[in-house]
Amino acid sequence: MTKMAATRDGYGDALLELANNPKVVVLEADLGKSTKSLHFRKAHPERTVSCGIGEQNMLLVGAGLAASGYIPFASTFAIFTERAFEQMRNGVARPNLAVHVCGSHGGTHTGTDGSSAQSIEDLAIFRTLPNVIVMHPSDVVSTKELTIQLAGESSPSYMRTARNKTPVLYEGRENEIKIGKGIVLKEGSDVAIVACGVMVSEALKAAEALEGEGIQASVVDMHTLKPLDGQLIDNLVSTCGALVTAEDHSVIGGLGGAVAEHLTANTYAPLERVGVKDRFGESGQSDEMLEVMEISAPYIAEAAKRAITRK
Amino acid sequence: MASADELRELARRCRVHIVNMVHRAQAGHPGGSLSEIDLLVALYKTTLRVRPSEPRWEDRDRFILSKGHASPGMYAILAEMGFISEEDLSSYRVLGGVCQGHVDMKWCPGVDFSAGSLGMGLSFGLGSAIAGRLEQSERQVYVMLGDGEIQEGSVWEAAMAAAHHELGNLNVILDRNRIQNDDFCEAQMRMFDIPAKWKAFGWNVKEIDGHNMEEIMDGMQFLSSTNDGPSILIAHTVKGHGVSFMADNPAFHGAAPNDEQYALAMQELGEVSA
Q1: Which chain B residues are within 8 Å of A63, Cβ to Cβ?
Q2: Is 0.80 surpassed by the pTM of this model?
């Protein structure tokens, strides 16, 4: 039985571990129970700032703290970070203040809360901002490790976590996880599937199905969308010659967009993008949503075959 | 401490800098710079604990110009204090200049906040005030808001949070000049009883005439000595104060004087005889 855990718990665990650095502070917007910053709040109330239901204020409180030498971690639902986009742009990214924003409950995978809660554009919008690191880790272990690493970064960041459980992939493999470095989970020479977040385990399932049909697929966990691991993409182009991206996010501007941008400026290879097709979601269970949005493993496998025929 | 007369003379010199900058650039925001400048002069000269030779001194008081378009006023006092040189003032709105169009902490010594988008400075000041408290520092944070600016909803998120966290080290100076970009505030968005709003949000409130130096000095004393929760000094000012044709004139929120108007302004500010 595959061990399952929610990436948001990795975030909560990381904050607790970071607490021994007295400069780490946590900002909440009334969703600490959900984003999992509550553990830090319980242990260190003096270093936790409740901002109420006010995300725009929260990001700039973070900017003020960062400008004063603190390391603020601010979390809310991914969808509500979007409300504070201009604060992130003008107040955080522009002066390059290392405020670390975590958007939990991202993507359609968040499920039954429905379309208003399913951010499918967060990775795209934050990726447009200079200085901002953008990540969407796939499992609880990598989320914890990447969050801990963020505390040592001098630039701001946006990281999306997921509400619901996904397979644990990296137990005991913490040393393989580095901000900005994609991880090759499976090697194959016919096609490369580059995935992020909750879609990484779907990509592994797709690769397994493809193997049954005699197709060897590489699978990469591209947990960092920005800065993109372009070296790894170039390697995949030369070894596989065809690429698929897979994300629980709009096909516009997210991981697929990042890889497409890289390919147009470097070595060409056919690319199929699996993602939410420029539409909004609805209420449903996580697995149902991946089906309805046509982004689950079978859709990735089909996209892989299309990419191969375009070689 | 500087006398009221000395502050008045310094404010006059700053007004000259402001009109010079905007005239030279043929762009910028003279109206709000002229309305705020008496307040800035008093704040920097009587209250703010800063070191011009060490602008990043960690335990300095923080001043956050949230209405960042009124940058000529801030550049003028920064030059008079010695954070930047008088020559730097001619870099206002010029490529590569320390005096960017809106004050920017990455470009100009003595600037603690990169402004330009209204409604952001109070939240940033709130974070700075929390940092001061975490460090058990006595330092104070002063935020200058425009009156039109408080139409931004996020100002009130910050106002509520400041009172909730009982931040006695957080202080606001509101430049109540009654004019915003397009027209008088009264026409754009009536704000009704502004002091009552801040009181209702849990702030200590004092109102002054923002061009009466004695009242301003009292007001600064009120801010620095009132530490049981956040405090706001509502300064009733006249936009464009000090230059007759700019005063109370919405046309000079964001417009530069032509050469003829510039000559008249210099005369009124006592730089050249009539």
Answers
A1: 123-124, 127
A2: yes
